[in-house]
Write a structure and sequence with these properties.
Blueprint: E1 38-39, E2 43-44, E3 50-55, E4 61-67, E5 75-81, E6 87-92, E7 98-106, E8 111-113, E9 118-125, E10 130-132, E11 136-137, H1 144-147, E12 156-161, E13 164-169, E14 187-190, E15 197-205, E16 210-213, E17 216-221, E18 228-229, E19 243-248, E20 253-260, E21 263-265, E22 270-271, E23 276-281, E24 285-288, E25 308-313, E26 337-344, E27 353-360, E28 371-377, E29 387-394, E30 409-411
Antiparallel strand pairs: 1-3, 2-3, 3-6, 4-5, 4-7, 7-8, 7-9, 9-15, 10-14, 11-15, 12-13, 12-14, 16-24, 17-23, 18-22, 19-20, 19-23, 20-21, 25-28, 26-27, 26-29, 29-30
């Protein structure tokens, strides 16, 4: 993995809840002293349907509405009475790629709306990967284990951290289940199974509608589930010299948009719901969308590291690849074996040097695989070809590959 270049990110850089929009804090949502209408966190059922819970006053007659995003028209989905305890639910079996929901009732002086909006998006991830932004709040601080509890083995999520890239690999669970995927941030999803995958994000819409964009290069997304032209509809705070890079999965390259003289060239970029993009800004700015304000609690992290990095993860969905077997050719290596990544900019094996630290092979049903996270490649520069090799050995014979003479050891490419 190499870092983005001076103009923008290279493709290789990632190879290795509340009210929204124009209804923000509207008095009509307060209920004027009535029991508030509250939507529970949406629940994705095994069938793929969505369970939507509603609470309010006992026997209230409520209407559930939906829209493709918070900037679109609201449509009636269903109307029903809450039970004697003031609760009710609806199962939405629509095959839509995205929806947001609110509830309403006749408050005597006009419609009274739910105090929150919830929703979901289904994002396809092609083989080339996808840049995604999660526009919903979930439990546990938006930890990835709550946002994406079930993902295909081999899926990799990469985002920007304080020291460069962070990689999170799913193999019978997330390597770092606490990694947050917050609204306003962006991340890259890679290593989808053959034919791609579809990831579902669901939760509550953020109230503030404001994210803080740092100076420099960052990976951003709309803090709310809304699509449209980036500036004219999503209110992106564009200033002269800004650049936006949108990954094109068909071409495997970036579509580049420059902002000069109060105009976008070659045209204004369009952002879909749940889509992330790189943005380069000379000065920090608050991205406040319609109805927002009151402080910015979320936002992307600037890419501050200039060190090339690679994700040390050996899983492959292709049989016969990725898994390391013992000398019998059958038994996967277990935790008594260590693996080390060797790297260099010269193809000669003798020129490769140890990179990162040695890590143990995984146990049990995922034995034979290594999940070591991001490794710095300090001797590589942007644009250079990097050659990688994995070397493994029995830890009882030494702390590194060279020392493990006499024990079972091997290397990729043999």
């Amino acid at each position: 993995m190499t870092r983005p270049g001076c103009r923008g990110p290279s493709r290789a850089a990632f190879t290795a809840a509340g009210l929204a929009a124009t209804i923000f804090l509207s008095p009509a949502f307060s209920g004027f002293g009535q029991a508030p209408i509250v939507l529970a966190a949406p629940e994705l059922l095994p069938t793929g349907d969505l369970r939507i819970g509603v609470s309010g006053a006992p026997n209230d007659f409520v209407s559930l509405q939906y829209s493709a995003d918070i900037g679109g028209a609201w449509n009636l989905l269903a109307s029903f009475h809450l039970d004697a305890s003031g609760t009710g639910e609806y199962i939405d079996s629509a095959a839509s790629p995205q929806r947001v929901y609110r509830a309403s009732m006749d408050g005597g002086g006009g419609n009274v709306y739910s105090v929150n909006i919830i929703g979901f998006i289904r994002v396809p991830v092609p083989a080339a990967g996808a840049f995604i932004g999660n526009p919903f709040l979930t439990t546990n601080g938006n930890a990835i284990a709550s946002v994406l509890p079930n993902a295909p083995n081999g899926i990799v999520v990469m985002k920007i951290g304080a020291s460069g890239y962070q990689a999170n690999n799913f193999l019978n669970g997330w390597w770092d289940p606490s990694m947050p995927l917050r609204p306003g941030e962006g991340f890259f999803v890679k290593n989808a199974p053959a034919g791609g995958a579809t990831l579902t994000f669901l939760g509550e819409v953020v109230q503030a509608n404001c994210s803080r964009l740092p100076a420099g290069l960052s990976l951003a997304s709309s803090i709310v589930p809304r699509s449209g032209p980036l500036q004219s509809q999503l209110q992106f705070p564009a200033t002269d010299g800004d650049e936006v890079f949108i990954f094109n999965s068909s071409s495997g390259a970036y579509d580049v948009y420059d902002f000069f003289f109060d105009a976008w060239f070659p045209g204004e970029p369009f952002i879909a719901v749940g889509q992330a993009f790189w943005c380069s800004k000379s000065t920090a700015a608050d991205w406040v969308q319609a109805g927002g304000g009151g402080g910015c609690g979320f936002g992307p992290t600037v890419l501050a590291s200039s060190v090339a990095q690679v994700n040390f993860f050996t899983y492959s969905s292709t049989p016969g690849f990725g898994r390391v077997l013992g000398s019998d050719g059958v038994t996967p290596l277990g935790t008594n074996f260590l693996a080390q990544l060797y790297a260099g900019t010269n193809a000669a094996e003798a020129s490769l040097v140890r990179s990162g630290t040695a890590v143990r092979f995984l146990p049990g049903t995922v034995a034979g695989y290594v999940r070591g996270g991001v490794v710095d490649l300090n001797n590589a520069s942007p644009g250079q070809t990097v050659y990688l090799q994995v070397r493994a050995w029995d830890s009882a014979f030494g702390t590194n590959y060279e020392a493990a003479v006499g024990g079972s050891r091997g290397k990729s490419g043999e």
